């Protein structure tokens, strides 16, 4: 019988388990707390723990996690796991037409000027037009509202990545 991803997480040494979690979100405290919670009885238990530990993340943790994310529409460089996650999550944007790509690039620039960090959205399962509409809408947010939304999106991404790693 082959071990499940959850079995591997539960049995991994702390450094290996921490590395897996950091590839889901570059937030060391979060990764450490989820690792300390092992062993988990079910996939849902570990995902619940990951959600709980991530809410809230500090501003510094949000900034660290955001710094690891590429702009929407740009291909993540490198061979590490978080870059692989980003490329897979943004696959739907990769085939966008030239006008959408241009509008995403312009929106990314405007967003970064307004908020000081990359625009982040859970891209998995969303098409380029939906992402562009969300970007346009979120440009109207005040900084506090946008910070809260970016943190929510980071949590969603982290948990989806962890679920993918363990499924």
Question: Which key phrases capture this entry?
Answer:
167 residues, mainly alpha, UraD-like, globular
Specify the structural class: mainly alpha
Helix content: 55-70%
- What is the CATH homologous superfamily assignment? Oxo-4-hydroxy-4-carboxy-5-ureidoimidazoline decarboxylase
What is the radius of gyration computed over CA atoms, rounded to a whole number of angstroms? 16 Å
Secondary-structure element pattern, one letter each:
HHHHHHHHHH
**pLDDT averaged residue by residue:** 90
Query: Which architecture does the CATH hierarchy give at level 2?
Result: Orthogonal Bundle
Shape: globular
Structure description:
Residues 71-90 have a biased composition (Basic and acidic residues). Keywords: Decarboxylase, Lyase, Purine metabolism. Pathway: Purine metabolism; urate degradation; (S)-allantoin from urate: step 3/3. Its EC number is 4.1.1.97. InterPro entries: OHCU_decarboxylase, OHCU_decarboxylase-2, OHCU_decarboxylase_sf. The chain has 167 residues and is an all-alpha fold. The protein has a single domain (5-166), classed as Oxo-4-hydroxy-4-carboxy-5-ureidoimidazoline decarboxylase (UraD-like, Orthogonal Bundle). 66% of the residues lie in helices and 0% in strands. It contains ten helices and no strands. The chain has helices spanning 5-11, 14-22, 28-36, 43-53, 59-67, 81-89, 91-94, 98-115, 128-138, 143-166. The longest helix is centred in the C-terminal third of the chain and has 24 residues, at 143-166. The chain is globular and about 50 Å long. The chain starts with a helix and ends with a helix. The model has no long low-confidence stretch (mean pLDDT 90).
